[in-house]
Amino acid sequence: MGYLLIFFICIIIFIVFIRRDLTHPLIYFLIPWVLCLLTYVLDIYRINGQINQEALNLVIIGTLSFILGTVLIRKTLVGAFRINNSGSAFPTTYRNWLIKLIIVFSTVFNIMLVVIMINYLRSGISYAYIRDLLYSYNDDGTKFFTSKLMLNVYNIVDVPMTYCVAPVAVIELFHGRLKLQYKVMSWISIGAYIIATGGRLIIMFMLFQFIFAMGYYRKDIPWKTIRRVGMFVLVLGIVAFVTTLFRVKSQSVGSLKINSVYAYFNVNLPILSRWIGTVDTSGVKGNGLAFFGGIFQLLDVILNKFGINLPVYENVANLINIPQQNWVQIYSGNWYNAFDTMFYDLYIDFRIWGVFIGSLILGGLSKWIYVLSTEFKNEKYVFPAMILVEILASSFFRWQFGTFTFTGAFLLSFFMFKNLKSNETNGSEDLR
C-alpha cells in the first residue's frame, strides 16, 4: 500500500504543480485516499490487524479503476457528443427562480432544525445524542422528527437542496450574481445545517469547492477576493473545531484517547473489512440496485405510500444499511459506524467486478463533466462538477449515489445554470 500511496501523491503533484489544474476530478478523489493510506502506513494505534486482504484488494482495484476511467475519457470523445461544437460555449446565467427557491427553502427548513435542536437541548438532552436522534443511531426508538412527513421532506428535499446551496455560496464569492440578501441567506442555510446536524462533512466539501472555484475562476480573482476567501476558510475551520468539541460523547474509563482527525481517515478500512464478509455470506447480489441506490431509495419511499413494496431492493438496502446501523470497536473503548467506503456498496452489486465497473463509470463520468466544464469552458456544468467534488471527496466514507441526498443534488445541479442563446447575450435578464 505504500507504493500505491506514493503513486497517488505523484499524480496529485503532477496535476496541481505541473499542469496547474485545480479542477481535475483526480485531485478530489485521491487526496482523501492519500490521507487514508497514510494512516494505514503509519498505523499509530496498531489496528492494521483488523484489516483483511480482501478489503485492501477492493481499495486497490477501485481506486485504480477510477483513475483508468478518467484516462479513457478524452476531450475528442466528449466533443463528438456535444450539441454545440463551436469554438466556445454559449454564455450562461443562473436559472434565477430555481436558485432563489433552493436558498429560501433550505434556509427556512434548516433554521427550523436549529429550533428543534435548541428545544431538545433545553429539555436536557446532550448535543451528541440529538445528532444520534437525527440519524437514527439511538436504540430506544426516540425520533428527531415527530412527523414522518417532516423526515421525508428533510431527506428528500432539504438535504439535497442544502448540498446545492454550498456550491452557490462558494461561486458567489468569486463571481457574484445574486443580491446580497440571497448571499447572506445561503450562508445562514449552511450555518444552520451545520449547527443542527453537527455535520463536518459539508465543511470539508466546501473547502474542496473553494479550491475548485479558485482553479476555475482564477483569471478573474482580485486580491481582495482571495483575502475574503481566506477569512472564510478560517471561519469554516473554527466551526469544524467547535462542532467536533460538542459532538464528543462520554467515554468509559480506560478508553484509548484517539486523535479524531486521524480516526476520520483511519477507521474505514477496518469497517470495510468487518462487513464485506457479511455481504459474502448473505448471498444477496444487488445487480446494479446499490449503484443506483439513490433513485431506488426515492422510488421505494413513494411506492410504500401506496402500500407497494420492492422486496428485491429492500434486501439490498438492508445490506447497505448494516454499517450505518451497527457500531464497530476499532480502538479500545471507541466505536464507529458508517465509514464503509464507496466500495462496500459496489461490492454488493457484482462483488469484485462491481467495484471495478462502478469505479470505472464514476471515473469516466467525473472526467466527462470536467471536460465539459473546464476544457470546453461551459459554465453550465460547473454546478454538476462541484457536486461531484462532494461525491468524490467522500468516496473514502460511502457511495454517495446510494442515497437520494446526493443523487437528487447531482440531478438538480444540471438545472441551476442555463445557456443563453446567441441572440439573448446582449440583453440578458436582471439577475439581481
From TrEMBL:
Source domain of life: Bacteria
Record keywords: Membrane, Transmembrane, Transmembrane helix
Transmembrane segments: 5-20, 26-43, 55-77, 97-121, 153-175, 187-217, 229-248, 350-369, 403-420
Keyword flag Transcription regulation: no
Protein name, as recorded: Oligosaccharide repeat unit polymerase
